[in-house]
Design a protein that fits this description.
The chain is an alpha+beta fold. It has six helices and 13 strands. The protein has one domain: outer membrane lipoprotein receptor (LolB), chain A. Helix 2 runs antiparallel to helix 6. Keywords: Signal.
Length: about 260
């Protein structure tokens, strides 16, 4: 197995094929990338609220839809947490199921947007503002490679960010989906009592640790995706950091990026 920490920019320049079939292969790869839009980064990225509402909860010995402390239902508490997180600056750090190794650093500023940076892998990053995600070309290539698809990113596109639009807000990257309380998993996170909420879909299994007392916050998320485990802890609530989107001359649409990759 290749360790992701050994990946460098040379990995991004490995071709998806040569000859007349290459443009079609690249088009298919980038169409996949547009659909992926880095779904496994952060904690809610692969699960919008609408989709999550249809999830079958994780089976837990004491999982319950009932009330938590103070008589609050799981759904009510989740809504409170999501409202607080949506409107509160915070930071986070942890691993991601998108890749085997490395850390992701998260910064959220409600006024300026979201920034997620990978460290220990490549240093690539992504942003989100007003429902538009800006993914660095390198991170896009790494995401595709993790799915078994390799594309050539020309050197001239090394510092480019590729945009994808979504009907969901940027808070979908950290929103807690529908789930049920699992009292058997309750624990303290950094000394703060937390209630566990569990949710699952297919091979995905998540545990969200919500603050037991107000203000309602997401303290930690632990995830399993196809056998990969990750965990992210959220900190520095209320401490705003500056999130600056890439300059417009370094931004292109997925269609423009595909054309540039096709051109070689």
């Amino acid at each position: 197995m290749i360790h992701m920490s050994s990946l460098t920019r040379r990995n991004r320049t490995q071709r998806a094929g040569t000859g007349p079939d290459r443009p079609r292969a690249v088009a298919r790869a980038l169409a996949l990338a547009a659909l992926l839009s880095m779904p496994a980064l952060a904690c809610g990225a692969d699960s919008g609220r609408g989709e999550e509402a249809e999830r079958a909860p994780v089976s837990s010995p004491t999982a319950t839809d009932g009330s938590g402390p103070g008589g609050t239902s799981a759904e009510a508490r989740i809504d409170q947490v999501n409202e607080t997180m949506r409107n509160t600056p915070f930071s986070g750090i942890g691993t991601t199921t998108a890749f085997d190794e490395g850390l992701q650093q998260i910064r959220w500023n409600p006024e300026q947007g979201l920034h997620i940076k990978l460290t220990g892998i490549s240093g690539d990053d992504m942003y989100c503002k007003d429902g538009v995600t800006y993914t660095s070309a390198g991170l896009l290539a790494l995401s595709l490679e993790s799915k078994g698809v390799r594309i050539t990113v020309p050197a001239r596109l090394d510092d480019v960010y590729v945009t994808t639009e979504s009907e969901q807000g940027c808070d979908s990257y950290f929103a807690v989906p529908s789930g049920v309380f699992a009292p058997d998993k309750d624990k303290e996170i950094e000394g703060v009592p937390a209630q566990a909420v569990v949710a699952s879909s297919g091979a995905a299994s998540d545990v969200y640790y919500l603050s037991e007392k107000d203000p309602a916050r997401l303290l930690r998320m632990e995830s399993v995706r196809n056998g990969r485990r990750s965990g992210t802890t959220y900190v520095d609530f209320g401490k705003a950091t500056t999130v600056t989107l890439p300059d417009t001359d370094r931004v292109m649409t997925m269609e423009e990026f595909r054309a540039e990759v096709d051109a070689g």
